[in-house]
Amino acid sequence: MSGAVVTTLPLDQILCGDCIETMRGLPSASIDCIFADPPYNLQLQGELRRPDESLVDGVNDEWDKFKSFADYDNFSKAWLIEARRILKKDATLWVIGSYHNIFRLGVLLQDLGFWVLNDIIWRKSNPMPNFRGRRFTNAHETLIWAARSADSRYRFNYQAMKALNEDVQMRSDWYLPLCTGHERLKNKHGLKLHPTQKPESLLQRVLMASTDVSDIVLDPFSGTGTTLAVARKLGRRFIGIERHPDYVVAAKERVAAEEVLTPDKLVITPDKREAPRIPFGSLVERGLLSVGTVLMDKRKKVKATIALDGNLVNGQQRGSIHKMGAMLTNAPSCNGWTFWHVKIDGQWQELDVLRNKLIQELEP
Amino acid sequence: MSGAVVTTLPLDQILCGDCIETMRGLPSASIDCIFADPPYNLQLQGELRRPDESLVDGVNDEWDKFKSFADYDNFSKAWLIEARRILKKDATLWVIGSYHNIFRLGVLLQDLGFWVLNDIIWRKSNPMPNFRGRRFTNAHETLIWAARSADSRYRFNYQAMKALNEDVQMRSDWYLPLCTGHERLKNKHGLKLHPTQKPESLLQRVLMASTDVSDIVLDPFSGTGTTLAVARKLGRRFIGIERHPDYVVAAKERVAAEEVLTPDKLVITPDKREAPRIPFGSLVERGLLSVGTVLMDKRKKVKATIALDGNLVNGQQRGSIHKMGAMLTNAPSCNGWTFWHVKIDGQWQELDVLRNKLIQELEP
DNA sequence: ACCAACTGTGAATCTCAGG
DNA sequence: CCCTGAGATTCACAGTTGG
């Protein structure tokens, strides 16, 4: 398949091969979200021992060895260019790394036209200590979340993130444990199958924040398939790319065993922006408000009257509920739904109450 | 003074001028530590308002405007080259930034031959929320700590950092509040004097970790003088460079008012590496241990006998307390002081106890 | 059965003075 | 400059063993 562009996406599959070559075979503007956990270029020298003389099993794989920063940059640029090509206009991309490589990736993203939305800190609850006492414990990794371009209208499930964080905004620092215990895939000798398997909790946060049900998620360095397994669980479509056949085999088995959440379990707090849009005029059309009704702000400082076309009128001034709120208070903008109040059954209430009532009626 | 290299450092002063030009006037290899809080290149588009329509007073100063990433890179490279020149061989440098600029700075550091030691996350306890609800709350900034080169024997007050953190290693994520309240310098209108004044707690952590008393600390973007004030308080020497005369005036006043901690208050937990070196043989010479005494490891698995020259003997094997500990346990190395135990008054105790006793006697 | 003690391990750029 | 050898250095969990 190398080189040949397919017209139908290989959905819910794991492709074995080099990620740059394999991405070249995929059509442009077809992917909603990419999560990438590329080699970190750790540049480890000799062996490292713990104070008890036991040996640290560091990352010593061939795939993490680069001759120089320039080599690493060339490799990174090549896969990021392909990644950007296959992303839809409003898509986003995540990369994860440490201080060894994350600065290189950040600069490439910025130079290639991606638009950085956040850098996210994965604070590890149980990091490996610094055994020589010569640096601060390296207790975090960094993720960069970027839109394909500055004008991408990307997805961010703000309310769902807020709900996950006890109803305050989700911050850029996430505290999550390493992938250990039964979640960690083992080989036949009982040793870790992959040196850098990421925890599912991290991927769940990522996909819950930035993708929708049925979105297409691609992981160009899919390894043991954590991204793919979580995508499947969350009802997203996925494409994995992995060079090492052993990892592909293990990931296929893992993903197949993953249970898909039923649609009712995938419902999240909707963002207000996604609620059906109700023009103020339709409240008038439908008779929830009648022409000539007087509206006032909360403190009864300003007032206006409803016109037949759904505009408000005050003397010579005329405009939408938003525009009139802004004009009468000399504000640059105004949310008319929460600014204006109307007397219903003797009680002054926000217009938003009526809007919500109509939304309820319109839903099945 | 521009261009003319001075032979004596302008210690405990704040120089008004461009940092690149001013650093060119300083001698090479003369500074122990640089802390830099450069312009962030924020690329703010238009004004930002809170949900209540009040205006967010963002960073919008001339010094934070760069035409492009390339401009920002050129500027950053120029000052980092001068910074590296004036640093001593074993010196370290700190820079702080956000995702707008920190990746550029990290790449430049790596490409110029600096050696990254840690990236540190300043987690803000009270960050500004994201008013639009379109991203995660940007609740942190990133610091990079780098040595002048990979072979620098840099200073890191490991034990002091550990002591500050309830006796566990200090991690790479620091939780500290923003600079607010009385600490925040105000202008004559009661408004904040500088848009990005850093908290003293952050600088104190930085200087306590990576400098010694009397070290020379330079801040090329000294602003309101936070670095300089903390350096003075902690008994370090300082040099500030700042382009804006108003900030220089305010910083001079602030620094002059800063109280210097007395030497007794500047004592920190010393690293063992800095303790006076006691050869094991001197314990034998001074009669704290006698020839022929039997030593054993903690679990009484191996033993050895003290020889007249301070070596240990076991059958044909002979060597220092460290070498014998390593040999008898097949370990690559061993700290004999904590490995071997000796019976004193019926109690088995670490050799280290005797060493500490001798150190006590030798001190005034 | 239950608890205490022990063992293993994680993306790691992990020493330095003195001759 | 290089080489030698003293000697400094670990946190949070998970899993297993032993009492």
Automatic annotation (TrEMBL), chains A, B:
GO biological process, one term: DNA replication
Enzyme class: transferase
PROSITE patterns assigned: N6_MTASE
Any GO CC annotation of this UniProt entry: cytoplasm
DNA methylase N-4/N-6 domain location: 31-253
Keywords: DNA replication, DNA-binding, Methyltransferase, S-adenosyl-L-methionine, Transferase
Gene3D superfamilies: Vaccinia Virus protein VP39 (3.40.50.150)
Catalytic activity: a 2'-deoxyadenosine in DNA + S-adenosyl-L-methionine = an N(6)-methyl-2'-deoxyadenosine in DNA + S-adenosyl-L-homocysteine + H(+)
InterPro entries: DNA_methylase_N4/N6, DNA_methylase_N6_adenine_CS, RAMA, RM_Methyltransferase, SAM-dependent_MTases_sf
Pfam families, sorted: N6_N4_Mtase, RAMA
Single GO molecular function: N-methyltransferase activity
Keyword Thylakoid listed: no
EC number of this enzyme: 2.1.1.-
Domain RAMA span(s) in chain numbering: 270-362
UniProt cross-references to CDD domains, sorted A to Z: AdoMet_MTases
Family indicated by similarity: Belongs to the N(4)/N(6)-methyltransferase family.
Name used for this protein in its record: Methyltransferase
Organism per entry: Entomobacter blattae
